[in-house]
Amino acid sequence: MHPDNPQPRTISQIADSVRADALIAYPTDSCYALGCRLGSRDGIDRIRTIRRLDDRHHFTLVCQDFAQLGQFVRIDNDVFRAIKASTPGSYTFILPATREVPRMLQHPKKKTVGVRIPDHVVTQALLAELGEPLLSSTLLLPDEDEPMTQGWEIKDRLDHVLDAVVDSGECGTEPTTVIDFSGGEAEIVRRGAGDTTRFE
């Protein structure tokens, strides 16, 4: 996939496969991620298996823009301004989920979900074609400290559990910075690719 001018036909094929319940690995502005359709129970189970996650793990809804993000989380004015100033970018925000978010994606006790708007041409093209968020999780394998950065390496190691790898060249190794706003105040959960200064 061309990193700056992704081929529309290929983007369309990837979107069709996601709609048909495919699990893909795709590049973002921080590192590669696993992604599937929003309501795909099979996709969620496969992500949990690949990464060995428990039910307290926050999945992330990767959204095209702020309008889409607003359908899935509740945001007050102060939080709105802070998030708006940081997107698109390498941040994941944990916020109270709306009824649009399937229960299986919400944190079981807090009823929260992670959301982000990536600053990546290929991801944005795919999200525009899909018309809905990608349910995602960082592609970080158990017992490994850094995510894989090459599409061919991901295909080589995970071809048996993925339906497709979207390769647009190398992307970063640093996952997103995670900010939890579910309590009203910004709490830095993970320091990553996004600058945390404005949240401290």
Basic shape: globular
The arrangement of helices and strands along the chain is HEEHEHHEEHEHEEE
Characterize the quaternary organization of these chains: single chain
| Uncertain runs | none
Strand segment count: 9
CATH C-level class is Alpha Beta
Main beta sheet: strand number and arrangement?
9 strands, mixed
SS-based class: alpha/beta
CATH-defined topology? DHBP synthase
Average pLDDT number: 91
Spatially, the strands of the biggest sheet line up as: 7-1-2-6-3-5-4-8-9
Helix content: 25-40%
How many angstroms separate the termini? 38 Å
From the alpha-carbon coordinates, what is the Rg to the nearest angstrom? 16 Å
CATH homologous superfamily (4th level) name? DHBP synthase
CATH second-level architecture: Alpha-Beta Complex
Beta-strand content estimate: 15-25%
Count of spatially separate domains: 1
GO molecular function: double-stranded RNA binding
Protein name: Threonylcarbamoyl-AMP synthase
